[in-house]
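FAQ

Q: What does a record look like?
A: Structure on top, sequence underneath. For example:
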């Protein structure tokens, strides 16, 4: 058997972090560029372990010289040699190659030839874009922040719950579920002229979850503090830069908590994640700061220093009415806030993060706790500049009779949610929670303006190819 290519390989990140003269270094990666000099050739090699590539110096006395000097961008190489201080500017260290193996060749059809491609073009090659600088940085930050999410909650002794992906309940009540069925679409069984879902695989009408919240609430009334972190699916046909049909959401649920406690947790959580990114993703954030959103790092530092403000929905409407601006959507008490309204509030009025709380009950989900005014519910949205709504949450209705009334008012069938009502029947307690859209967080942290560019393989209306 031939030796495995990656045996004894050292990640380039570790090579550069160690930063000392070393012999017998072996790295593997993909060629970012080749420069043929008069005396030697230079290959920059990237293995994704960090933003930086490693400069490989290829001298003509190497038996593979001619072959390597002709190798194209994108080829996969394994290189052994000595790490030495680089005499040239641009990098501190370089690897003087002693042997090079071309593990995987490329031809000139390889689409990532140019130094800078448009994000639209890179989206059309989602299977190759992780090999670009921008997407390398995006997906490293994504990975780091995914770990940070767990760290935040685990340190606070929250229990992590895996809520189901397939469910019979439309939590948000917006009817935006993707159907899950094994029935024959040409000839489904019928009952009184309607599809008989009772004969479907699960004996019920099921779909992909829009939120893990309802099941999360059940666990919160046993473990007190829980969180979920999983994929959620919404079949809404909105082609915006902030909506995906499949996205990841983090949903904590806390018992013995009201809306104010919920907001405090959301604030602590967002601050922690921003701090984590600044402390752990410096090299990638610097790239975003230079190439994607000028002043990004300052913006993130400003968030850490900022006071998180709170306004009621009613106050927010008054502020919007006073705005010296023509909105596309009318500002009317009782209508949901549109993205343009949210951005105006957080960018123009407050210039920082702001919680909007106490929304009219008719525009919010059935589970939100009814306020004493009987018109609003204890809901909160956290708005941040550029992104708008990054978190949505509420205190939950823990009073059985009030919840039943709201469900009836919304024409909901109690039977399907009897299990949800049970926790109000037995040992009910005040509780609250929220959902943070993981991609919205990443957009905020990286400055990337399109949600399609912060998720590895975006699913949006008409697109599920890769
Ligand atoms: O405001 P939403 O719909 O709230 C819920 O789903 C609640 N069940 C959460 C809870 O209280 N446990 O969604 C929460 C967050 C939004 O603030 C937004 O960041 C993100 O999820 N989000 C989306 N992200 C990407 N694409 C979409 N289509 C999204 N819809 C919501
Ligand atoms: Mg929302």
């Amino acid at each position: 058997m031939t030796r495995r290519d990656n045996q004894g390989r050292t990640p380039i990140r570790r090579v550069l972090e160690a930063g000392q003269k070393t012999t017998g270094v072996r790295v593997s990666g993909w060629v970012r560029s080749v420069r043929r000099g008069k005396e030697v050739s230079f290959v920059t090699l990237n293995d994704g372990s960090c933003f930086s590539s490693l400069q490989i110096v290829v001298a003509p006395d190497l038996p593979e010289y001619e072959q390597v000097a002709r190798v194209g961008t994108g080829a996969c190489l394994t290189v052994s040699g000595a790490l030495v201080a680089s005499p040239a500017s641009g990098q501190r260290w370089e690897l003087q190659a002693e042997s090079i193996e071309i593990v995987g060749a490329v031809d000139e059809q390889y689409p990532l030839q140019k130094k800078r491609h448009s994000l639209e073009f890179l989206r059309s090659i989602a299977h190759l874009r992780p090999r670009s600088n921008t997407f390398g940085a995006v997906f490293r930050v994504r990975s780091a922040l995914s770990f940070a999410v767990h760290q935040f909650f685990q340190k606070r002794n929250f229990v992590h719950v895996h809520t189901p992906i397939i469910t019979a309940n439309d939590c948000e009540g917006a009817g935006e579920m993707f159907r899950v069925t094994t029935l024959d679409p040409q000839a489904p069984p019928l009952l009184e002229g309607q599809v008989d879902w009772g004969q479907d695989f699960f004996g019920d009408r099921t779909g992909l979850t829009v939120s893990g919240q309802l099941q999360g609430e059940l666990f919160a009334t046993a473990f007190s503090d829980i969180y979920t972190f999983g994929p959620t699916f919404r079949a809404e046909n909105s082609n915006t830069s902030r909506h995906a049909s499949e996205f990841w959401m983090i949903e904590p649920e806390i018992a013995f908590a009201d809306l104010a406690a919920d907001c405090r947790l959301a604030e602590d959580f967002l601050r922690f994640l921003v701090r984590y990114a600044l402390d752990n993703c410096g090299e990638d954030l610097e790239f975003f700061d230079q190439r994607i959103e000028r002043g990004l790092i300052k913006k993130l530092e400003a968030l850490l220093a900022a006071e998180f403000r709170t306004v009621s929905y009613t106050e927010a409407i008054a502020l919007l009415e006073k705005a010296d601006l023509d909105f596309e959507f009318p500002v009317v008490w009782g209508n949901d806030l549109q993205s343009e309204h949210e951005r105006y509030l957080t960018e123009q009025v407050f210039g920082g993060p702001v919680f909007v709380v106490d929304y009219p009950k008719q525009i919010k989900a059935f589970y939100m706790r009814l306020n004493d005014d009987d018109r609003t519910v204890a809901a909160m949205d956290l708005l941040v500049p550029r992104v708008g709504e990054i978190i949505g949450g509420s205190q939950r209705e823990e009073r059985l009779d009030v919840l039943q009334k709201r469900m009836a008012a919304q024409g909901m069938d109690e039977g399907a949610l009897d299990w949800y009502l049970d926790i109000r029947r037995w040992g009910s307690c005040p509780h609250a929670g929220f959902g943070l859209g993981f991609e919205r967080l990443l957009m905020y942290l990286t400055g990337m303006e399109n949600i399609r560019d912060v998720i590895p393989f975006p699913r949006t209306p008409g697109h599920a190819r890769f």
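Q: Is there anything notable about this one?
A: The two ends are 34 Å apart (CA to CA).
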